[in-house]
Automatic annotation (TrEMBL), chain A:
InterPro entries hit by this protein: AP_complex_ssu, AP_mu_sigma_su, APS2, Clathrin_sm-chain_CS, Longin-like_dom_sf
PROSITE patterns: CLAT_ADAPTOR_S
Main localization, broad class: membrane
Biological processes annotated in GO: clathrin-dependent endocytosis; intracellular protein transport; synaptic vesicle endocytosis
Organism encoding this protein: Chinchilla lanigera
Name under which the protein is recorded: AP complex subunit sigma
GO molecular function ontology, one term from the record: clathrin adaptor activity
Keyword presence, Nucleotide-binding: no
Record family assignment: Belongs to the adaptor complexes small subunit family.
Subunit structure, interactors included: Adaptor protein complex 2 (AP-2) is a heterotetramer composed of two large adaptins (alpha-type subunit AP2A1 or AP2A2 and beta-type subunit AP2B1), a medium adaptin (mu-type subunit AP2M1) and a small adaptin (sigma-type subunit AP2S1). Interacts with CCDC32; the interaction is direct and mediates association of CCDC32 with adaptor protein complex 2 (AP-2).
Subcellular location field: Cell membrane; Membrane, Coated pit
Taxonomic path: Eukaryota, Metazoa, Chordata, Craniata, Vertebrata
Gene from which this protein is expressed: AP2S1
Length: 142, 1144
């Protein structure tokens, strides 16, 4: 089960933070800092997995952005690693060649994408076509 | 910060590995409101955290003004909300906007609502109080005809929803399971999944609907339902075995590419779905051969189909391997899986290598040769630059540790330990090292050195059990006296030398261990005088870095040593120094020492040498004070009242409502808390303040000495004080010793033939041979090193563990017998047994089944007897009377259908079942209805987990039935376990048929009737229906709840619903014992504790709703005070108790 999803840049600025577990605000900030500290020191040649408290973090770096998913220790690492990639592919389609600034300025849309793909701490939808269809439908409301 | 923008901009084309260059200026594409854009740009342009803070605070205050202005339109509000989200995301508090987010979700149009919901889901958490305000909006939106609104409502429900409001939306969401749109059905399933996570019993009744979702025509809905199933199967796999076939079929279809192309991910069909299914299968097939056999084919196919085309196929492969090793083994598959693991381990990709190690770790105990195959890779990973890989390798090594390789492996673990800083890792690793050291230590020196390292690194973060276990091991010793002695001597020597190191720093926990060991065992040293040990301890005591808890340990050690010392000026100095200590605990210990010191003879008696394991006899009743007490009483002194009573009286005098009668006072009895094996505290019974606290103390003081603090409310358990000091690297001697050991170990081991290789290679080979020794086929005995008790050097005489495993075993027995009980009492013996029965005996008395029936001999006689009784109907048969109930619990229909087992086996099953039922309390048999053909009687069986209603329908002589059915009408307050009407195809004359129903309470009640009907068809006439009813009382569902007084206190505070009741009595003082007895017998309450004129009782309403009763005798009666977690229960219980007491 997913505990939280974080998107941070190399400097540790949060671009997205979605929590599937109850934390209070101070705890959230602490977690964000810890994740940043844990993930950024890792070499590109290292694994994409880190143990983190009683959980583990599956992360993937795209340019200057770290996409991190914190899951239970018993979960399948690669499945979540690929889920991140799937998510980024959807973002790429949705924003037509996504870059960090898209995410910065449209952060609220990114949350919508997250909600379409992950729900209740689980992977909800993995079909890119379906997600995009739904997103475009929502977009048309605006 | 501006350089980041620059960097980002330059990174634009490369953001995606496969992205095409030239995405255009991104900012221009994004249609955002100008204010938001300004804010984001502003923040991005800043260079310092301080400036950012200033800007955001400015923004927040302007937002605050805007959102609270009454003129603000919803459209502006929406924009404000987005900006608020941004501020929150950066970690600033925007709580003033929460309520407005809820309002926006409530009032806005579609778009505004969406932002409102988004803001709510980001701002609030599950137990936020404002969330209650959202419930109405959600209910409204769930009923909306607009799909988008329904979707939004479902999304928010699956993210955050207050647990207690689930009933408000549950029916609406259940409806959505039938919705025509798959996305709605899918989200509804996930919402139910969320409910299952946070409040599983609220959705129990819709399990049938989950099955429907599993069979949904849409793959997405089915996939969503798998989340629920995975969770439920994890909790209880046995309930879902029947679904194995369905899961296998689904997986087959997925693997075979039968799903729409939509679900493909890089040409792999629905990989996440496959993984989910594989996990479910793994859980279902665990230790279950029959279920596992169903899935071998599809597992094989999954392995085959997962051609290595993409990363995600590795994910499937990994899961598949995991499943193959989880389910009942099949050698063919295991072989393939092992090959697969090889592919992972040898992969150049670091992620795969890591997962390969993980898989190895998982399977290595089953198949140690696999680790042997990959030993060189494992050695390489041990020095891998990525700490995660290293860590996993250590985990793997930990699993293959045996007495031959323990020194090398522990050394590697210690090396890693010294490098890691993260607390979680340290705690985990330290625990493992301690475990290995205890199990496989080759000699005393190594063991003590390793534990020293554990204590100095693990120090105050490690699990407290480690130090207590270590001390217990030292104290209780092993079978060999000299060995024990050596170990203790070594420990003492090593600690003395550690204490002599100048400026060394040790964690508090370590010092406590040292002080205990020195206090107990330094007498073993010939060359060291106790005075000198005392001097060292005193030096420590005077150091600033010692916590007061440790000081107490140190003083206790000094106290133990004092009688051995001839004279010691240090003791006097210590007394002088610490009798004025501000710490009450330390001061108390010092005073004890002071007084004992004045009378050396007493002290020697009190603190004998090496008696830490002897049981201490304590006169808990304080009878030696009786004379004194009697004298005082005769002089007119007031009788002693326990603390809580005094407190209560004081409060009642003050006319203050006391809501928390147990919170403070009852904890006073908790000072027996055995958390630290500290030195002996002498005050425990001398200064113990009341006899009743003493009662708790009756038995052994053993290692776990009593520590306590004098607190405001009386004696309190001393909390383990967490000394926050950071631990430093362990002192040099430890490491030296360990590495020496390592060397020795290396030379002792027979060296593998080494080919001409580079030096590095040789080293690796050497390491491998030392690591994997004992894993090869030549030493098969050691393969299961973990289970192998003989190889444990330090076999602990762990009574606790034995007791525990004993409990586990008995628990298993219980479940076994209850497993037997429900079914398999099938047709055939039905025939025998029913034939044997004396007819018309339904109303006869009950005898337990004679054991002769269960003898194999008598079993073989059965058919004969059967025939006999057939011929001589009126003759009293061997098995006179009718207690051969053949119980038909819910699943009996299916079970009896497959009754092909030999008769003897069935009888055996039946016997275990019947034996069990005789243990349960049952009511007398009552005839409920009868006519010329049948007589129906019933009785109640008060089982521990439910009420079993047993109905037996006896056919009268001369009438043959074609079929008989029993229907139980649904009742409001309880549910009968679902069972289609029991059906008896044909009943011969004079036979008895038994039906059995499990009853569970839905909500508390006082009296209720359960009614039903029995219908039968006679061979010659038409169908007849007979109605009947049985009275049930709440008492049928009450079971004693066995808890301790402390738990009672805790539970009491946690319950909100209470009812008080006064029962008038003529002689209240004498009434308590009899009242308690009545309650215990008639209402089945468990008497937790009786103190003076108060009694504590506890019970549970089936299945597990606890209720507590506090009763107190006062001047003119008995005051009953009920509390429970269930609102209606105290009322009903109070009624029943009153009835019981007044009736007695």
């Amino acid at each position: 089960m997913i505990r939280f999803i974080l998107i941070q840049n190399r400097a540790g600025k949060t671009r997205l933070a979605k929590w599937y577990m109850q934390f209070d605000d101070d705890e959230k900030q602490k977690l964000i800092e810890e994740v940043h500290a844990v993930v950024t020191v890792r070499d590109a040649k290292h694994t994409n997995f880190v143990e983190f408290r009683n959980f583990k973090i599956i992360y993937r770096r795209y340019a200057g952005l770290y996409f991190c998913i914190c899951v239970d220790v018993s979960d399948n690492n690669l499945a979540y690693l690929e889920a991140i990639h799937n998510f980024v592919e959807v973002l790429n389609e949705y924003f037509h060649n996504v870059c960090e600034l898209d995410l910065v300025f449209n952060f609220y849309k990114v949350y919508t994408v997250v909600d379409e793909m992950f729900l209740a701490g689980e992977i909800r939808e993995t079909s890119q076509t379906k997600v995009l269809k739904q997103l475009l439908m929502l977009q048309s409301l605006e | 910060m501006s350089d980041i923008v620059e960097r980002t901009l330059t990174a634009l084309p490369g953001l995606f590995l496969q992205g095409q260059p030239g995405g255009g200026p991104a900012a221009a594409k994004a249609p955002f409101s100008s204010r938001l854009g300004g804010l984001v740009r502003g923040v991005t342009a800043l260079t310092s955290k301080h400036e950012e803070e200033k800007l955001i605070q400015q923004e927040l205050s302007s937002l605050k003004a805007t959102v609270s202005a009454p003129t603000t339109t919803l459209k502006t509000m929406k924009e404000c909300m987005v900006r608020l989200i941004y501020c929150e995301m950066l970690g600033y508090d925007a709580s003033f906007g929460y309520i407005h987010a809820i309002k926006l979700a409530q009032q806005g149009n579609l778009l505004e609502k969406r932002v409102g919901y988004l803001a709510v889901s980001l701002f609030l958490h599950e137990s936020h109080e404002l969330l209650l305000l959202l419930v109405n909006t959600v209910v409204k939106d769930l009923q909306s005809t607009n799909l988008v609104e329904v979707c939004m409502a479902l999304t928010i429900v699956s993210q955050i929803f207050p647990r207690e409001m689930i009933p408000a939306v549950l029916p609406l969401i259940e409806d959505k399971l039938q919705h025509s749109k798959e996305i709605i059905r899918r989200k509804a399933v996930l919402a139910l999944y969320k409910f299952h996570l946070i409040a599983p019993n609220q959705v129990q009744h819709i399990h049938v609907k989950f099955r429907k979702a599993l069979c949904d025509r849409d793959v997405g809905v089915m996939a969503a339902s798998l989340h629920i199933y995975l969770r439920m199967i994890k909790e209880n796999s046995s309930g879902y075995k029947d679904l194995t076939g369905s899961f296998v079929t689904i997986l087959k279809q997925v693997v075979g590419g039968k799903l729409p192309v939509d679900f493909n991910y890089h040409n792999v069909p629905a990989p996440w779905l496959q993984i989910q299914l594989l996990r479910i299968l793994g859980l279902l097939g665990k230790d279950d051969q029959r279920t596992s056999e169903l899935m071998y084919d599809v597992l094989d196919e999954s392995l085959r189909r997962a051609e290595l085309s993409h990363n995600v196929t590795y994910a499937i492969l990994f899961e598949c391997v995991h499943t193959i090793y989880s389910v009942y083994p099949k050698s063919e598959l295991l072989e393939k899986a092992a090959k697969c693991i090889g592919k992972f381990v040898l992969s150049p990709k670091i992620n795969l290598k890591y997962l390969g190690l993980k898989a190895l770790t998982y399977v290595v105990q089953r198949d140690p040769t696999l680790a042997l195959q990959h030993q060189m890779t494992i050695i390489e990973c041990l020095d891998h630059p990525d700490p995660i890989i290293k860590r996993e390798t250590l985990e793997l090594l930990y699993r293959i540790t045996n007495s031959q390789n323990v020194t090398v492996i522990v050394q590697k673990m210690l090396e890693y330990l010294h490098q890691s800083k993260e607390e979680y890792i340290i705690v985990n690793l330290v625990g493992k090292i301690a475990e290995l050291a205890e199990k496989y230590a080759p000699d005393n020196a190594w063991f003590i050195q390793t534990m020293n390292a554990v204590f100095s690194v693990g120090g105050d973060v490690m699990h407290p059990d480690i130090s207590s276990n270590f001390l217990r091991l030292l104290a209780e010793g092993f079978d060999d006296e000299t060995e024990d002695r050596q170990l203790r001597v070594y420990a003492v020597q090593s600690y003395l030398s550690l204490l002599d190191v100048e400026n060394a720093f040790y964690p508090q926990r370590f010092l406590q261990v040292m002080s205990w060991v020195l206090g107990e065992y330094s007498y073993l040293l010939d060359n060291e005088k106790p005075e000198e040990v005392i001097n060292r301890l005193f030096k420590l005591l005077m150091s600033d870095s010692i916590s007061s808890e440790t000081k107490a340990w140190l003083i206790a050690a000094v106290t133990k040593l004092t009688p051995q010392a001839q004279t010691s000026s240090t003791v006097e100095r210590l007394i002088q120094e610490f009798t004025v200590s501000l710490d009450t605990c330390v001061r108390q210990h010092t005073f004890e020492l002071k007084h004992l010191h004045e009378n050396v003879e007493v002290m020697k008696n009190l603190l004998p040498v090496n008696k830490s394991c002897e049981d201490l006899v304590v006169d808990a009743s304080l009878s030696f004070l009786d004379g004194y007490v009697a004298e005082r009483l005769s002089q007119g002194a007031a009788p002693y009242k326990p603390h809580h009573q005094r407190q209560e009286e004081k409060l009642s005098q003050e006319k203050v409502l006391n809501f928390e009668p147990y919170g403070l006072s009852f904890s006073s009895s908790g000072f027996t808390g055995r958390q630290s094996p500290a030195g002996i505290s002498l005050g425990s019974d001398i200064s113990g303040n009341s006899a009743e606290t003493g009662l708790k103390e009756t038995n052994s003081l053993k290692l776990e000495g009593v520590k306590k603090l004098w607190g405001k409310e009386g004696y309190l358990p001393k909390k383990e004080s967490k000394a926050g000091e950071e631990m430093e690297a362990s002192p040099a001697p430890l490491e030296n010793a360990v590495s020496e050991n390592m060397d020795q170990a290396g030379t002792r081991r027979d060296q593998a033939p080494v080919l001409a290789q580079s030096k590095e290679e040789k080293e690796k080979q050497l390491l491998a041979s030392s690591l994997f020794v004992g894993l090869g086929s030549e030493s098969q005995i050691n393969l299961l090193g973990k289970a192998d008790n003989v190889s444990h050097k330090f076999r602990r005489k762990s009574k606790v563990k034995e007791a525990k495993s004993g409990e586990a075993a008995s628990a298993r027995d219980l479940t076994c017998s209850s497993l037997h009980s429900p079914s398999h009492v099938a047709h055939e013996e039905n025939d025998y047994l029913t034939a044997l029965q004396d007819r018309g005996s339904a109303e006869a008395e009950e005898f337990p089944l004679g054991s002769e029936l269960l003898d194999p001999e008598s079993v073989s006689e059965l058919p004969v007897v059967g025939k006999l009784s057939d011929c001589a109907l009126s003759a009293p048969s061997l098995f006179a009377d009718s207690d051969m109930e053949v119980f038909h619990p819910p699943s009996s229909a299916a079970a009896s259908a497959s009754a092909a087992a030999p008769v003897t086996a069935e009888i055996a099953l039946a016997s275990s079942f019947l034996e069990e039922t005789t243990e349960d309390v049952r009511s007398g048999r009552v005839e409920v209805c009868s006519d010329e053909t049948v007589t129906m009687s019933s009785y109640k069986l008060w089982k521990d987990d439910c009420l079993l209603m047993v109905w037996s329908v006896a056919t009268k002589s001369g009438s043959e039935l074609k079929s008989a059915n029993l229907d139980i009408f649904p009742a409001e307050n309880f549910k009968t376990s679902e069972q289609p009407g029991c059906c008896l195809p044909a009943a011969e004359a004079g036979s008895t048929k038994t039906f059995q129903y499990r009853l569970q309470v839905e909500r508390p009640f006082t009296e209720e009737t359960l009614s039903g009907s029995v219908s039968y068809q006679r061979v010659d006439t038409h169908a007849v229906q007979l109605e009947f009813s049985v009275n049930l009382s709440l008492l049928d569902f009450i079971r004693p709840l066995k808890i301790s007084t402390e738990d009672f206190g805790k539970l009491w505070l946690s319950f909100a619903n209470d009812v008080k009741q006064n029962i008038k009595m003529s002689e209240p003082q004498a009434a308590l014992p009899s009242a308690l007895k009545t309650l215990q017998e008639k209402v089945r309450l468990h008497v937790v504790d009786v103190r003076g004129n108060e009694g504590l009782l506890a019970c549970r309403l089936l299945p597990s709703t606890p209720s507590l009763l506090h009763c107190r005798v006062h001047a003119d009666g008995l005051a009953l005070w009920f509390r429970s977690s269930c609102p209606a229960l105290p009322d009903c219980l109070s009624y029943q108790c009153q009835k019981a007491i007044e009736g007695s």
